[in-house]
Task: structure prediction
Amino acid sequence: MTEPSIWTEKYRPKVFDEIKGQKHIVPRIKAFVMQKNMPHLLFSGPAGIGKTTLALVISKELFGKEWRTNFLELNASDERGIDIIRNKVKDFARTKAVNDVPFKIIYLDECDALTKEAQQALRRTMENFTNTCRFILSCNYSSKIIDPIQSRCAVFRFKNLSREDIFDIVDIISKQESLIIDQKAKEAIYFVSEGDVRRAENILQSAAALSKKINEDAIYSLSSVARPKEIKEVLNLAINGKFIESKSKLLDTLLSYGLSAIDILKQIQQEVWNLDIEPKKKLKIIKECGEIEFRLVEGSDEYIQLEALLSKIALINDNKLN
Result:
């Protein structure tokens, strides 16, 4: 008795419905798959939101059990020169698919890392082998892809997953792995992941290795992210003119969570908007955060720059800094 195939018309809708957070993209991709025809695709967006997953789903849905034969995945950040396009990509693209689908698929991940010369070579390859091959290009920044390639592709812009989508994924994992996760822990997972599913799952796996019962303390300690209320306390101390206490609290937070200055600066920038001060003062603090971030990137001392930021926050609230 042969093994029943999971790639049936009945199964296809279920596969696409399980993809979270990209409701504006999935129906269009599903239509391509059902017609067994599609243009070249360009997926752009942040990391960990489902670009590679969707490319794999497309391949498995089109080719069934022969998907590995008809699907080539390359990471352009590892192999970013012109030779990879001239050799490996062309060799795969020039042969026909082993299936009733008339084309193979080449998936180039992180293709914004390709050199301009390699992108020009890719452009010609996409033209010459249209009859036997389709390309799915994935990148974080579509602006780094040359215009001739963008014009040859249907562009899909992915977005970070929403709070509800992350909660749904956490609920599915917790049910399958018999985990107990309280609501505050879910909120913490969403806060530290910022809509990145890969990061959310890694944090959850790390926490589950310690205990099947997961709370927010475990999430924050494993993710090297300070609690928002601790950052807010640092800022409130500075606003109230308690500079020494604010500096001590900031140093304790840095050391206890093992954070870098850039990490904590990003959290400060997020918490500024929750402060109980005038909107114009919030804008001035954000401006100072940008200045401090630039100096940190240029190699300035972390502790001096963070202390400078706290002092400027105190002066801004005291109306002594224009």
User: Anything to note?
Assistant: The CA atoms of residues 44 and 139 lie 5 Å apart. Residues 12-157 form a domain with the Rossmann fold fold (CATH 3.40.50.300).
